[in-house]
Structures are given as C-alpha cells and as structure tokens.
Write a structure and sequence with these properties.
By secondary structure, the protein is an alpha+beta fold. The chain has one domain. Helix content is 17%, strand content 19%. It is globular. The N and C termini lie far apart (33 Å). 7% of the residues are buried.
Length: 72
C-alpha cells in the first residue's frame, strides 16, 4: 500500500539519525501497524496485524534479531 494513502500520525524513534535514515510507524484505524521508510514517505508501506507486530517487538526486546544488525 502507498504510505501516503494511510491516514494518521507517523512516528519514529527518538534515536533516528538526523539524516532521516529510519523507519516510521502509524497505528491503523482498523487495527494493526503500518511501517514506511522515512526517506520515502510516499513509497510502499508494510502492513502488519497487531499480533504480528507484537511478536516482532517481543523478539526485538529479547535480542532475537541482534545478529542481523551492524551496530557502531
């Protein structure tokens, strides 16, 4: 879905870089979460059901995806 067609407020992490390299999230009116690239706000958005997003956040909190990240 095109991100610019999604109503609502987009939010991003306070830790996002000043050059805009991050993702933004929006709660959907019908439930679920939309995610877009902050550098392409009119580009595609990924849509997740609430349970899918909760599972992802839980895994991130537990460090299950740390091996996929390059931290400086």
């Amino acid at each position: 879905m095109a991100a610019d067609l999604i109503p609502g407020r987009w939010v991003k992490s306070r830790k996002s870089e000043a050059n805009g390299m991050c993702v933004e999230l929006a709660a959907l009116p019908q439930g679920g979460i939309a995610i877009r690239n902050s550098t392409d706000p009119a580009g595609a958005a990924l849509i997740f059901r609430g349970a899918e997003f909760e599972a992802f956040v839980d895994g991130a909190k537990r460090g299950e995806f740390d091996s996929l990240c390059t931290l400086n």
